[in-house]
Design goal:
Largest sheet of chain A: 2 strands, antiparallel
Number of helices of chain A: 12
Helix content of chain B: 55-70%
Strand content of chain A: under 5%
Number of helices of chain B: 13
Number of strands of chain A: 2
Structural class of chain B: mainly alpha
Shape of chain A: globular
CATH class of chain B: Mainly Alpha
Strand order of the largest sheet of chain B: 1-2
CATH topology of chain A: ABC transporter involved in vitamin B12 uptake, BtuC
Number of strands of chain B: 2
Oligomer: heterodimer
Amino acid sequence: MNELSLFALIFSAIRLATPLIFAALGGMFSERSGVINIALEGLMLAGAFTGAVVTYEAGNPYIGLLAGMLAGAALAYVYAIACIKFEADQVVAGMAINFLMIGLPALISGAIYDSSGSTPQIDKVNLLPEFFNRLSLASILAFALVPVCWYVLYKTPFGLRLRATGENPAAADAAGVKIIRLRYIAVVLSGVLAAAGGAYLSIGQSSLFTRNMTAGRGFIALAALILAKWRPVPVLLACLFFGLTEALTIQIQGVFKLPSGEDIPVQFIQIIPYVATIIVLAGFIGLSRAPKALGIPYRKEK
Amino acid sequence: MKILREILSPLIAVIAAFIVGGIIVLLIGDNPFETYSLLLANSFGSAKDIGYTLFYATPLIFTGLAVAVAFRCGLLNIGAEGQLYVASFAAAWVGITFGGTIVKIMEGGQPKDVDWSWMSLPATLLVPLCILAAVVAGGIWGAIPGILKAKFGSHEVINTIMLNFIAVALVGYLTQYHYKAPGPILQTAPIGEAAYIPQLNQFLPFIPKDVPLNIAFLLAILMCVVVYVFLWKTKWGFELRAVGENPSAAEYGGISPQKQIIIAMTISGALAGMAAIGEVLGYRRHHEEGFSAEWGFLGIAVALLGRNHPLGVFVAALFFAVLQRGEIFVDAFTPRVSKDIGWVLQAIIILFVACLQIYSKTTRTKGKV
């Protein structure tokens, strides 16, 4: 591999890590408060779809991004009601949100654009801008978000309460933390961030929304979060790692040959990120420790 | 009282989902009553309608049972889709290889005759062997996330999702490079005639001949009984459920949660794999890319709505079969609403069932993601 393609590989990895960073940081807030967020995939799809539709209609990617984040917030609020108020099984409710976001965008785009497969193509000038032809504004935002999240999580009263809620809600409650309200905020925040990552997929990396376009990225983001032990800076590194595996799949295609001289079948390359996720998860989950109250609904002692 | 509550909460979930779905249909600009009558009214009118509904229900019974068994052990198997996908290819592979015919397979872009007649097996051996292949392939694909969870603690939801993608890619590779039939569709060569399973029409003449309902439906009913007996009448079933209700108490009682997790996921995968039997041996007679209408995912809704009980699974599978058949009519005859309304209703039903759990003592999924 020459220097030029190494350069390309790095930028490609950053590009592909960007949606994961948004989603994983979002998931971090939710999970640190004690709510499992397997709905990241659906929240990303909400952002991707709304972002694409609003950008197409308004001709402005910033309005689109904002609308996508709002949609993520709204959907996350629904998820929060199910998990917090109704104490629903968080994994089951999360999957329901994911399924909803396979059907609902297709239903809506089928009705307004007469095409349930995808939304119309957005003009290139109306997409999120890229600098030096390579580096998206969204990538810069994602990287900038990491120290911000670190500061919020470790240096603010909100972050302290959040961590306490995820570890020992009863003690936090006794210390005067409003557990329920805090969890709502954390889940909605995770919706906003995950949706921003999703919106980047449809109005940055590509120029339209296609059905189920996240293709498991929400789950990969969750794996990155586990690998990073629910901490912001390692989240960045974990997401870059997964971005790199995906970037490699693009670079490998057509470059390496089988001993027989034929191309490696594309299917073997496609599965690399998924296999990497399984291996990394199996190898590192034993070393990571989840927030203690993760997945357990909180009921005030009476 | 208990039975009433068991029936009541799924019913509330369905009605509430239809109300929310109706509002969505209204917002989109169609008439919800018209949409729902198209969705629900085309499934029981004639023998043909009933036959098709039962045909659609067959794979859903298998995937519903698959999800239910895993759920009883506190596991959410989202991998039924991948499990039935590898099972479909495995069944087709055995059916082709031992089918005793010469088949045309694409090789390097050219159709080529491959002669497998020397490995011909009679139907009495070939059909069970094909079924076994589907069960084993599905079982292995289910066992992998089970082992990963038991040995490393990595969550089955993430792993099964990843394995779904991997299954589609690997089967796609095998189909495209080694067993592809000539033509534009990515499908394998046909299985031998000896691997065909009988159509129900042969025994029940009132079912029209063009309805592809086959004996896999009877197998599905049989598996409902088998799963019931296994879960509630055997020691193994008791141990599996004990882990689902309280893993630490089960461990204290001398049951290994790790072992039960692997067993549950293997059985779950094998049941999901059975969904391929009717499809490959009774209907298509080959493996085809994208043949599953998301049965693996629908199985989750089927299991949850059916309270993870075989009888409930059977009824819920019929209900979702009605929706699946109705979707086609909705797609064709409403101005705006597409068949995706089925996905939306399914998702809302799952969400409501999950929300209503608070009112009943049910198994919850275990593990932190």
